[in-house]
Write a structure and sequence with these properties.
This protein has helices at 3-16, 35-51, 64-68, 80-89, 102-105, 109-120, 142-149, 171-179, 183-190, 206-210, 295-316, and strands at 23-27, 54-61, 94-99, 123-128, 155-158, 163-164, 167-168, 194-199, 215-217, 229-237, 240-249, 261-266, 277-287. The protein is an alpha/beta fold. The protein folds into two domains: 3-160, Rossmann fold (3-Layer(aba) Sandwich); 193-316, Riboflavin kinase-like (Elongation Factor Tu (Ef-tu), domain 3). It has a six-stranded antiparallel beta sheet. A five-stranded parallel beta sheet has the order 3-2-1-4-5, sandwiched between helices. Strand 1, helix 2 and strand 2 form a beta-alpha-beta unit. Helix 6 packs across helix 7. The radius of gyration is 23 Å and the shape is elongated. The two termini are 43 Å apart. The relative contact order is 0.11. The model is unreliable at 321-333 (pLDDT under 50).
Amino acid sequence: MTSLEDSLAVIRRFADAGSGRPLFLAVGTFDGVHRGHQVILRRLAADAAEAGAEPAAMTFDPHPRAVVRPDEAPPLLLTLEDRVQRLKEHGAQRVLVVPFNREFASLEPEEFVRHVLVERLRARRVYVGFSFTFGRGGRGTPALLRQIGEPLGLEVRQLGPVTEAGQVLSSTVIRQALAAGDVAAALRYLGRPHAVSGPVLPGRRQGRGLGFPTANLADDGRVLWPTDGVYAVRARWDGGMWAGVANLGGRPTIDPAGPRLLEVHLLDFHGDLYGRRLSVEFIDRLRDVRKFPSVEALREQIARDVRQARDILARGGWLCYHPTGFQRGPRDR
């Protein structure tokens, strides 16, 4: 079976498992499922409910640019699993993940519309964003989608850009914000905090020696990490949440040759998290990572970081704790 046949087989199975209702389909990569994507998904869900149709989304794995221009492949904002979950949370009842490969990328726009959207999926209406492209060489545009699809009975809904303070929201803009450490801007653009996750690793207990024990994570390369810095964060595990402060980067004062880690100190937490999978959400940036003249100076700065993080998280309503006697904050999502 060729790569194209693999992709078409996935599409066929998705179509065969349909509900029997007319299919309304949002199509895009949806990296991040940011606020611009959420507008498309809300419109999809509302229109489908009114028309008695099934709202679904089509996304691609891997990221199309990783196939057609590998040297320009962007770091992802969400794992595929999280992307699918977010798409469903925002309105898609089913999600079609198309294996993206060179053969699928080589489909002419006319083939994609006629053979994939109309004949195989039997979509009645598709929803796309303002910058959507498809088909060989990215030749397909929303206007061409409408030109090809409407004579075949396929309605097209193109939604315009969403802006924040004059900035058009996009996955690229969010990646730029994270690269600059501006996790507060990324939060606004995403409509939620950017998060990374991983198993808690055994450490050298250097934080414990300073009076601030940490849960340590290593970058597994699955999603984009913000630039190095000290951050106010919120951690999740086993369905619960806890506020904290995190050092992302090295430890130039006490372990200058050590690896780059995300070290999370959970406020007022006493327990063992080794081996658990922790998801860390970045709320705001406090400062750069820097070398201090002494261990005592570092300890004093960490205490200030904790106070500042506690204040930021309390004011923002992000002080949410594990459900063992603590109440969740008003901004919990």
